[in-house]
Structures are given as C-alpha cells and as structure tokens.
Write a structure and sequence with these properties.
Rossmann fold; 11 helices
Length: 346
C-alpha cells in the first residue's frame, strides 16, 4: 500500500519581496501583487515593472539593484495572466534580478527552471528559483468521505474578484472571536501569504477533489477550515477547477463573492456574468452531492471602486433583495459582523 499523503509542507520564501508587474495593463491580472501588498505588506519593499505597464500597487518603484540595497531578498512575479505564461520579453528583467542577488518566486504555470538562461544564472549566482504552482506528490483520488470539523468555501460569479480576500478576512474574523480557524490556500497568492497550500489549478483533473480533501482534513468539530475558492462554476475556462474544489471541500457553508459593475467574464468579453442567484443555486445544487447540508451564508461584495456611502446603500439594497447578509469583508463594519454571525449559525 502507498503511504497516506501528508499535509502540504510550509513554503519558504525569503522576504522582503520586490513585486514584479511585467507590462500588465489590467489590474485583474496583477492580483498576486495586490494580494501580497494587502495581506503581506510588511514583507514587500517595492515594485518593478516594464515599459507599457499601467498597473501599480502604489509601492515604491525600484530596480532589482535598488531593492537589494534596501534589503530585498526575493523578486516575486506578481502577475497571474491567462495560461500562467512567462513571456519571452520578461526574461531580461528576471535575469537582472538574479544578477542583482535576488531569488525569484513565481506562481505561473510555466516553470522558472525550464528556462535555460534563468536556470544557468540562478546556479551561477547561488540564487533560488521557486515555483509556487508545484502540487505535492501522491495526491489521492477523492473518496467523498464526510470529514469532521466545519468548512467554508468562497465561490464567485467570476475569477479575480475577491474570493481570496474574503476567505482571509473571514478566517481572521473567526480567529478574532476566539474560534479555531485556518485559511486554506488554493492559489499561488494565497500560498505565498499563508506559507502553505495546494495550487489547485495545477493538479491533474482527476485529483482536484482529492487535493481539496487533503487540504482540509478531519478536524475537531468546532474547528473551521476557510477554503480559498477558485474561478467560477460558470467560467468558460476554469469551471472544472471550481467544481472539483467544491466537491472535495464538502463545504458546510459557502459565501458568494461578486464585484458590482462587472458585467462580463474577465478575459472573455463574449460571456455575460451570471447573476448572484444563479451562482448560489448552482453551487448549492452541485455541492449537495458531497454535503447535502450545504448552505449559503451570504454575499461578499468587492466595493473597492465605490465610495463608502454608495457601497453602504448597495449592500443594504442587495441584502433586502436577496434575503441574505451582504457585506464587503475589507470594509468590515456591522454588515460583515452579520455575515460572520450567519456563517456560524447552526
């Protein structure tokens, strides 16, 4: 018999980080950089981008050599583009980082070590190439067995609109109430923030649900695993990842994430977003396959583009319309307290 796979080992990255933005011109594709800025800001020293980039985290702009002078030890690729590719015209900048004395960490699907130039430079300068999207070995096929403990999964109307932020905020809020809770990372940014996790979208399809089971094992009955969602059940590219994660997580509770004003799928202008109600209905129907007691605790809105007054009015209107708590987890406040209360309702 093969050994039972163990929980993912902690990831070791050497901070502080210089965040590399490439030549990104769409904020949604720089979610790794924004996630690290917002949830690991004490480990970020600046940003570095190429001509043509129109996205900024607001951190000081600096070259790799300048970053090393102020203590940076790693360059982190802060981009999560379609396909997880490293364009050829980025290689000079990444080589510059290695030559300046920085390790490179990447959450892309393409492996850093597969580039001969980067591999040779890393070896010559004694630097590390860290590929975050490397699943642990021995992931089992899901067995569907009901596990002890409580689980919450964030689901969304689209990708890159707040599922990670919502999960992190909920895990922090639960801990603030004295409740045992762990954030379970399933994407490259979450793994960098948490220090461990499984990159679900890099797992072979047959093993996605098994990876989710491995990520949230049996736990005490009062312990919560707050699992970072991925993609969307309605996404033309990533729905398979979302479904496997839903089945394997066996969530007792889902929180639906949405960005007001977004009308079409990110990167797929021909596909209109489903409504909040459609996604909740689909998630509950499909999730009931492995947990018949699944329920939706409420809605998390990403209102970062709205004024506080506009956001408050919108959240109130959506709460009345949906009959569920509606909050922006980053704004917090009584709306978010009500959402946490509903998550904990027996």
């Amino acid at each position: 018999m093969s050994a039972t796979p163990s929980a993912p080992a902690p990831l070791r990255l050497d901070p502080p980080y210089l965040l590399f933005l490439g030549d990104v011109d769409e904020a949604g594709f720089a979610k790794t950089a924004f996630g690290l800025r917002d949830w690991a800001g004490d480990r970020c020293t600046g940003e570095y981008s190429l001509p043509g980039a129109t996205v900024t985290t607001g951190l000081p702009m600096m070259t790799p050599a300048e970053a090393v002078k102020v203590g940076a030890r790693s360059l982190v690729i802060g981009v999560a583009n379609p396909g997880g590719i490293i364009p050829p015209h980025w290689i000079d900048a990444l080589a510059e980082a290695l030559e300046a004395g920085l390790d490179i960490a990447s959450g892309m699907h393409v492996r850093l070590a597969d580039d001969p130039r980067l591999s040779e430079l890393a070896q010559r300068h004694g630097r590390r190439l860290v590929d975050i999207r490397t699943p642990p070995p021995g992931i089992p096929v899901a067995n569907g067995r009901k596990r002890s403990g409580k689980r919450l999964l964030t689901v969304g109307t689209d990708c890159a609109l707040g599922k990670k932020y919502t999960a992190l905020a909920i895990a922090r809020a639960l801990a603030g109430r004295g409740i045992a809770a762990d954030f379970r990372a399933t994407g490259q940014t979450g793994i960098m923030v948490a220090g461990s996790g499984i990159p679900i979208d890099s797992v072979v399809a047959d093993f996605i649900a098994g990876a989710a089971e491995l990520l949230s094992p049996d736990a005490p009955q009062d312990h919560w695993d707050v699992i970072e969602g991925q993609g969307s059940l309605f996404h033309p590219s990533y729905s398979g990842v979302s479904l496997g994660l839903l089945h394997g997580s066996q969530p007792d509770v889902i929180v639906l994430c949405h960005q007001p004003g977004r009308t079409h799928t990110l990167g797929h202008a021909g596909y209109r977003l489903p409504s909040i109600e459609e996604v909740v209905e689909m998630a509950l129907k499909l999730g009931a396959r492995t947990n018949p007691a699944i329920r939706c605790a409420g809605v998390a809105l990403n209102t970062s583009a709205l004024t506080e007054d506009t956001a408050t009015v919108l959240m109130g209107a959506e709460r009345d319309r949906l009959g569920l708590p509606v909050a922006d987890p980053i704004r917090g406040g009584p709306e978010f307290d009500a959402l946490i209360d509903e998550c904990l309702r027996e």
